[in-house]
Prior knowledge:
Structural class: mainly alpha
Amino acid sequence: MDWLQLGTAFSLGFLGGAHCIGMCGGLMSALSFAIPERQATRRLLILLTYNLGRILSYAAIGALFGWLGYLSGDHPALRIIAGLLLVAMGLYLANWWHGLRVLEKLGAKAWRFIQPLGKNLMPVRHPGQALLLGAIWGWLPCGLVYSALALASTQADTVQSAATMLFFGLGTLPAVLAGGLLAERVKQLVQNRGLRIVFALAIIAFGLWTIYMGLPQSEGHHHHH
Length: 225
């Protein structure tokens, strides 16, 4: 296991929490409000199973991309592409450049066929429904997920790529879960401009480091270690 990569993936998910709330916050609030406040344990169980489905979905997509990477061989260019996507994600989070929307629009074409499956599961009454809904929602077109997937595919290994996406999903959990339980308070926090810029700069730094690791001279140095 490449623990540095897993740590990077977790941090990317954690730092991108503001973006996650923007994408999934509405659904999390809907899941919360569908269950009476007095049934706090049931509400938490629904939110946890939804997120479990979402994270397992990321891991499955990661395994698929790792397998495709394995078939195509180890290409340092994949690291450079992953790094560029991470830099683009940082710029997107900071509201400086929205180039990643092009990728999200491409993903939206496939999402049109997947989304109706999720609508059939609403309103969510039990954990089984929540798990399935989360598994479907994991395919939502999202620049942050695409950035993490690019990072996962650099491993060219099914298990490592799946683990990378699993750790990325776990990183997104605090923000998405809090978005469902404390919707308004969390929304105010992630909309804080200064905080978003700090997170964005950290993701850009990850991207630049990933690009550096993909450059030919660093590749030899990396293998030497």
